[in-house]
Design a protein that fits this description.
By secondary structure, the protein is an alpha/beta fold. Helices cover about 40% and strands about 25% of the residues. The chain contains 8 helices and 14 strands.
Length: about 290
């Protein structure tokens, strides 16, 4: 019986080359390079080859544009009308003239931030919010400035809010008799102080004609009968309150023939009499001196 040849068993241990390759692949860098880097590189190369041809680029560009147009023109993205809330009729009309949108229009074609900036450039607008509402409505919410004073300049009249921002021009003083008048260089920059002075003048409100800024430093309170209260640069409200207190006392200085009440030095108030009162005063002094 022939002797059977023993089969040589395969050694399960990897070869030296395979062992080294496996060890290299176990490192994070090379493992990431094989599992991520090479596929990404292959995709990039494919895109480079695809886009290297001008005709293929045009085809892809047209395809993308067609898909975009189809999405943007869908009914749920179309805007069909505009509403303006919080604005008066005149301001609303001005806003519509500044934003001439032709409806219907895709919401993707509307620059809402640019519209908001345009609306807020109007003098009468303090702030604005622009957004596309459900139902295809372009909604503009406006917060208007509230006029607080009438400002007179050499160029005409204008309405200012409580911070001195211009609201709108006005043709005649009689158009807003409910608002106080301010004038003089620098008056528009000191509206908050002017309003504080006007509030202090409430007891003589019926006689108040306006405030004049003098030398861009202080205020004169202008009353009827050409009377004027000259206030100091510092703490004008307290000085005016002192004049009103003197007027409410028995002497009633503002009811007399007084042209100016000078409070520029509050510790030494000075009165300037009218011509008739001054003449009477001189006669009184002369009579008293004659008796002496």
């Amino acid at each position: 019986m022939p002797q059977m040849t023993r089969l040589r068993r395969r050694d399960p241990a990897p070869s030296r080359l395979v062992y080294r390759v496996e060890r290299v692949l176990l490192t994070p860098f090379y493992r990431g390079l094989v599992t991520t880097g090479l596929p990404v590189l292959a995709v990039v190369m494919a895109f480079v080859l695809l886009l290297s041809d001008a005709n293929r680029r045009d085809v892809i560009r047209n395809f993308v544009q067609d898909v975009r147009n189809e999405i943007e023109q869908r009914p749920e993205f179309m805007v069909r009308l505009m509403t303006i809330d919080g604005a008066t009729e005149d301001v609303g009309a001005e806003i519509r003239s500044l934003i001439p949108v032709e409806f219907p229009v895709s919401s993707f074609d509307l620059d809402l931030d640019a519209m908001r900036v345009t609306v807020e450039k109007l003098d009468a607008v303090a702030s604005a919010t622009v957004r596309v509402r459900s139902g295809g409505v372009l909604g503009i919410e406006v917060s208007e400035r509230v006029p607080a004073v009438v400002w007179r300049t050499g160029a005409g009249l204008a309405l200012l809010d409580a911070k001195g921002h211009q609201v709108a021009p006005v043709d005649e003083r009689s158009d807003r008799p409910d608002l106080p008048l301010i004038l003089g260089d620098g008056a528009e920059s000191n509206v908050p102080e002017a309003l504080a002075v006007i509030a202090a003048a409430r007891p003589i409100e019926a006689r108040l004609r306006g405030l004049r800024r003098v030398g861009e430093r202080r205020w004169d309170v202008m009353l009827d009968r050409d009377q004027r209260i000259m206030l100091p640069e510092i703490d004008p409200v307290t000085a005016l309150e002192a004049v009103i207190a003197m007027n409410e006392a028995p002497q009633e200085i503002l009811a007399r023939d007084v042209v100016h009440v000078d409070m520029r030095r509050p510790d030494r108030p000075t009165l300037r009499l009218g011509p008739a009162a001054a003449a009477d005063h001189r006669r009184t002094i002369a009579f008293e001196m004659g008796e002496n």
